[in-house]
Amino acid sequence: MGSCNFKSEDADPTVSISKTHFQFHYVIGKGGFGKVWKVELKKTREIFAMKEMSKARILAKKSVNSVLNERQLLATLKHMFIVNMQYAFQDKENIYLVMDLMPGGDLRYHLGRQKKFTEEQSKFFIACILTALEYLHNNGILHRDVKPENLVLDEKGYVRLTDFGIARVWNPENAKDTSGTPGYMAPEVMCRQNHGVAADYFALGIIAYELMNGTRPYQGKARKQVREQILAKQIQIKQDEIPEDWSIEAADFVNRLIQRKPVNRLGLNGPEEVKNHPWFRDFDWKKLTDRRMESPFVPSQNDDNFDLRLHLTDDPWKDAESEAYQQSADLLRNSSSQALFAGYFYDISQQNAGSESESTRN
């Protein structure tokens, strides 16, 4: 698809990076606040993914804290199994988050194409996700929205975790933090109870079940529907239900992760407990983290790992939430509303320069 350049009269000339520094290629994703673009930094020709998020939509959905929280968390995180932030900036209408581009697309897209994966492929994916969660949990952070849409593949088939909008630094009194995605949300989160790292491992179990069977154990788009199913029955994979060419250890791994009660769930005591499950016996974790392990699923090397029809789809805000959107757009004319986004800036090159300077002084 063709490229297009955007001009922005709203860009702040006093900051080192803005929308005008990028060439926009095409849309590779959509979210609740806007689009995700494949972009090129003109100066260096580096390729990135850019989340372009409407301030009006953010205000209308009362999500200012969420987007600021993501920017703040990502400034403290850097790991090869998460999608790292490179730049963050804003203009009068939008905020922008520039991230590593994962050319392999997201796991939801590949699940839609493949329907299910082999045990070998699934184990590799789960190991990548586990490594990302280990890093977060060891730093006291809960992701709270682990799902196939937030798992993206690089060109070699390694999986990285993204979207930290509802991630939180763990707080023992967090019963009110009930955000998440139905189908992947842990029962304790859904039922407004205090929760810890085990909530992320429940989601991991749902994903492992989905990779194995091509469907989630608890169906339903609404939280109430899923909640009723979870409360009604503890789903477990029986021995005669294990797909052909899958091991009993894999089924046990899934069964122990999707336990409704966190006290019974694998992962309650942290990542080492999950990594030590018999399914991962003899798994070479160092080879994985050194990126010397060959992925058993390598995505296409062309640009067909994204649904490029996304840019053609209708904007859902035109109908149901148009009034709320318009009210929020009007609010943005006030400096007090713009001030809510103060500090939304990050430039990794400045951060690196600062680190080098500090290192020199020491």
- Major β-sheet profile: 6 strands, antiparallel
Q: What class, by secondary structure content? A: alpha+beta
Query: What order do the SSEs take from the amino end to the carboxyl end, as H and E?
Result: EEEHHEEHHEEEEHHHHHHHHEH
Percentage of helical residues? 25-40%
Number of strands: 10
Total tally of structural domains: 2
Q: What do the pLDDT scores average to?
A: 88
Low-confidence parts lasting 5 or more residues at pLDDT below 50? Answer: 1-14, 355-362
Radius of gyration computed on alpha carbons: 21 Å
User: What's the overall geometry?
Assistant: globular
Proportion of residues in extended strands: 5-15%
Terminal CA distance reads 49 Å
CATH topology of the largest domain, anyone? Answer: Transferase(Phosphotransferase), domain 1
CATH uppermost class of the largest domain:
Mainly Alpha
Side by side, the strands of the main sheet go 1-2-3-5-4-10
Number of helices: 13
Can you tell me the CATH superfamily of the largest domain? Transferase(Phosphotransferase) domain 1
Pfam families: Pkinase (PF00069)
InterPro entries: AGC-kinase_C (IPR000961), Kinase-like_dom_sf (IPR011009), Prot_kinase_dom (IPR000719), Protein_kinase_ATP_BS (IPR017441), Ser/Thr_kinase_AS (IPR008271), Ser_Thr_kinase_AGC (IPR050236)
Protein name: non-specific serine/threonine protein kinase
Enzyme class: transferase
